[in-house]
Amino acid sequence: MKNLRLLLAFAVVLTLLSSCKKSDPTSLSYLTSHKWNVTAYTRGYSDSTATHNLLATNATCTTTSYTEFHDYASNNSLRLAYEYITTNCPGFTSPIIQVSSWDLDNDNKNLYLDGSSSSGTGGKWYTITTLNSSTIVLTYVYQRQVGNTGAPNFNPVYDTVTETMTYSAQ
To answer: Which of 30, 57, 60, 115 is packed most tightly, with the most Cβ within 10 A?
Structure first.
């Protein structure tokens, strides 16, 4: 009888342990658990093969920056991103903090990054290409008018622009 109770207790503990599984990290936890550095920002055009890396370097000035995503949803529905930028140029040093809002869609496949409240720029929904503990890759695709077909109809001609931002965890 004692062995039966011991066996039953062991089976219950084993069942409880097997039902507890480690939860997978969420997009929210990846975003909010690190400081993120933009390591690449490119813009490609469908009407040409050129892809422009927009993170140019300047030999006389250095700029360092990182972004932190904060989720204050427990207190209210506010999600803020803080971008900390420091520029060191001869005779000029500027620490700047830019605050913007962000959000994830219900499927965690798109990240909304709002423009800066200080500059008044608007936000966009970026497609999340990669999101893990070390890398975020966001893509934004849109159409831009590059001209028209000429007389008599002057129909607009568009190309596709693809912007890609890559962040690395700090």
So the answer is: 30
Cα gap 74→93, rounded to integer Å: 36
12: pLDDT strictly greater than 60: no
Classify residue 42 as left (phi > 0), alpha (psi -120 to 50) or beta: beta
pLDDT digits (tens, 9 = 90+) for 57-87: 666 677 778 899 988 766 556 788 888 878 7
Taking residue 6's Cβ as centre, other Cβ atoms within 10 Å add up to 10
Question: Please, which residues have CB within 8 angstroms of residue 15's CB and are 6 or more apart in sequence?
Answer: none
- Cβ atoms of residues 166 and 132 within 8 Å: no
- Distance, first Cα to last Cα, the chain: 59
Q: Give phi and psi for 163, each to the nearest 5.
A: -105, 135
CA 142 to chain centroid: 18
Confidence label for 21 from pLDDT (cuts 50, 70 and 90): very low
Which run of H or E residues covers position 35?
strand 35-45
Instruction: Name 111's bridge partners.
Output: 104, 126
